[in-house]
Design brief:
- By secondary structure, the chain is an alpha+beta fold.
- It has 2 domains: 67 residues, no CATH class; 55 residues, no CATH class.
- It is built from 4 helices and 3 strands.
- The longest helix has 49 residues.
- The chain starts with a strand and ends with a helix.
- 6% of the residues are buried.
Length: 139
Protein backbone atom coordinates (compact mmCIF):
# COMPACT_ATOMS: atom_id res chain seq x y z
CA UNK A 1 0.00 0.00 0.00
CA UNK A 2 1.17 3.50 -0.81
CA UNK A 3 0.01 6.74 0.80
CA UNK A 4 0.08 10.34 -0.34
CA UNK A 5 -0.97 13.64 1.23
CA UNK A 6 -2.69 16.39 -0.72
CA UNK A 7 -2.97 20.00 0.44
CA UNK A 8 -5.90 22.09 -0.72
CA UNK A 9 -8.27 24.82 0.41
CA UNK A 10 -11.07 22.27 0.80
CA UNK A 11 -11.25 18.53 1.36
CA UNK A 12 -13.36 18.22 -1.79
CA UNK A 13 -10.68 19.89 -3.92
CA UNK A 14 -8.06 17.49 -2.58
CA UNK A 15 -10.38 14.55 -3.29
CA UNK A 16 -10.83 15.66 -6.90
CA UNK A 17 -7.08 16.01 -7.38
CA UNK A 18 -6.45 12.57 -5.85
CA UNK A 19 -9.14 10.97 -8.01
CA UNK A 20 -7.49 12.38 -11.15
CA UNK A 21 -4.00 11.33 -10.12
CA UNK A 22 -4.59 8.06 -8.27
CA UNK A 23 -7.79 6.81 -9.86
CA UNK A 24 -10.91 5.25 -8.36
CA UNK A 25 -8.97 2.69 -6.30
CA UNK A 26 -7.64 5.32 -3.86
CA UNK A 27 -8.98 5.27 -0.30
CA UNK A 28 -9.48 8.35 1.82
CA UNK A 29 -7.47 7.64 4.99
CA UNK A 30 -7.44 10.91 6.93
CA UNK A 31 -8.32 14.60 6.78
CA UNK A 32 -7.16 17.39 9.07
CA UNK A 33 -6.28 21.07 9.01
CA UNK A 34 -2.80 21.30 7.55
CA UNK A 35 -0.03 21.81 10.11
CA UNK A 36 1.56 25.30 9.98
CA UNK A 37 4.89 24.02 8.69
CA UNK A 38 3.28 22.14 5.80
CA UNK A 39 0.85 24.57 4.22
CA UNK A 40 -0.67 27.99 4.12
CA UNK A 41 -3.33 28.80 6.77
CA UNK A 42 -6.79 27.57 5.88
CA UNK A 43 -5.59 24.55 3.92
CA UNK A 44 -6.35 20.93 4.66
CA UNK A 45 -4.14 17.87 4.53
CA UNK A 46 -6.03 14.97 2.99
CA UNK A 47 -4.30 11.57 3.02
CA UNK A 48 -5.10 8.82 0.52
CA UNK A 49 -3.89 5.24 0.25
CA UNK A 50 -3.91 2.83 -2.66
CA UNK A 51 -2.64 -0.60 -3.68
CA UNK A 52 -0.20 -0.15 -6.53
CA UNK A 53 0.80 -2.52 -9.31
CA UNK A 54 3.84 -1.93 -11.55
CA UNK A 55 1.89 -0.35 -14.42
CA UNK A 56 0.34 2.23 -12.11
CA UNK A 57 3.72 2.89 -10.52
CA UNK A 58 5.36 3.64 -13.88
CA UNK A 59 2.46 5.84 -15.01
CA UNK A 60 2.50 7.77 -11.74
CA UNK A 61 6.26 8.28 -11.86
CA UNK A 62 6.04 9.57 -15.43
CA UNK A 63 3.16 11.89 -14.54
CA UNK A 64 5.04 13.30 -11.57
CA UNK A 65 8.00 14.18 -13.78
CA UNK A 66 5.82 16.36 -16.01
CA UNK A 67 6.13 19.34 -13.68
CA UNK A 68 4.15 19.12 -10.49
CA UNK A 69 4.66 22.34 -8.53
CA UNK A 70 3.63 20.74 -5.21
CA UNK A 71 7.13 19.45 -4.23
CA UNK A 72 8.67 22.85 -5.01
CA UNK A 73 6.03 24.67 -2.99
CA UNK A 74 6.59 22.36 -0.02
CA UNK A 75 10.36 22.81 -0.30
CA UNK A 76 9.92 26.58 -0.47
CA UNK A 77 7.78 26.53 2.70
CA UNK A 78 10.35 24.36 4.50
CA UNK A 79 13.19 26.71 3.52
CA UNK A 80 11.20 29.72 4.72
CA UNK A 81 10.54 27.98 8.05
CA UNK A 82 14.23 27.08 8.45
CA UNK A 83 15.22 30.67 7.64
CA UNK A 84 12.81 31.96 10.30
CA UNK A 85 14.16 29.51 12.89
CA UNK A 86 17.75 30.48 12.04
CA UNK A 87 16.94 34.18 12.45
CA UNK A 88 15.31 33.48 15.83
CA UNK A 89 18.34 31.47 16.96
CA UNK A 90 20.71 34.25 15.88
CA UNK A 91 18.64 36.83 17.76
CA UNK A 92 18.64 34.67 20.89
CA UNK A 93 22.42 34.18 20.66
CA UNK A 94 22.95 37.94 20.34
CA UNK A 95 20.70 38.55 23.34
CA UNK A 96 22.66 35.99 25.40
CA UNK A 97 25.97 37.62 24.43
CA UNK A 98 24.65 41.02 25.54
CA UNK A 99 23.32 39.58 28.80
CA UNK A 100 26.61 37.83 29.53
CA UNK A 101 28.56 41.06 29.03
CA UNK A 102 26.15 43.20 31.09
CA UNK A 103 27.20 42.02 34.58
CA UNK A 104 30.87 42.65 33.79
CA UNK A 105 30.14 46.19 32.63
CA UNK A 106 27.89 46.80 35.63
CA UNK A 107 30.46 45.38 38.01
CA UNK A 108 33.02 47.79 36.61
CA UNK A 109 30.58 50.67 36.90
CA UNK A 110 28.86 49.85 40.18
CA UNK A 111 30.84 47.11 41.85
CA UNK A 112 29.32 43.85 43.07
CA UNK A 113 25.97 45.50 43.89
CA UNK A 114 25.73 46.74 40.30
CA UNK A 115 26.54 43.28 38.95
CA UNK A 116 23.89 41.60 41.09
CA UNK A 117 21.20 44.15 40.27
CA UNK A 118 22.05 43.75 36.58
CA UNK A 119 21.18 40.07 37.00
CA UNK A 120 17.73 41.01 38.23
CA UNK A 121 18.14 41.13 42.01
CA UNK A 122 16.72 44.05 43.92
CA UNK A 123 19.30 46.27 45.59
CA UNK A 124 18.28 45.13 49.09
CA UNK A 125 18.64 41.45 48.15
CA UNK A 126 21.98 42.16 46.46
CA UNK A 127 23.23 43.89 49.63
CA UNK A 128 22.11 40.93 51.76
CA UNK A 129 23.88 38.45 49.46
CA UNK A 130 27.10 40.45 49.68
CA UNK A 131 26.79 40.76 53.49
CA UNK A 132 26.42 36.98 53.82
CA UNK A 133 29.38 36.36 51.50
CA UNK A 134 31.53 38.75 53.52
CA UNK A 135 30.41 37.05 56.77
CA UNK A 136 31.64 33.74 55.34
CA UNK A 137 34.95 35.37 54.56
CA UNK A 138 34.49 35.48 50.79
CA UNK A 139 35.41 38.65 48.90
Amino acid sequence: MRIKSYYAGTVEAAMELAAKELGPEAWLLNTRPAPPEAARPGEYEVVFGWAENETQSEARDNASLVGSAEPWEKLSREIAELRRELEETAAQAAQLRRAAAAPVRMAEAGGPIGALTACGLSESVAEEVLARLRARGEP
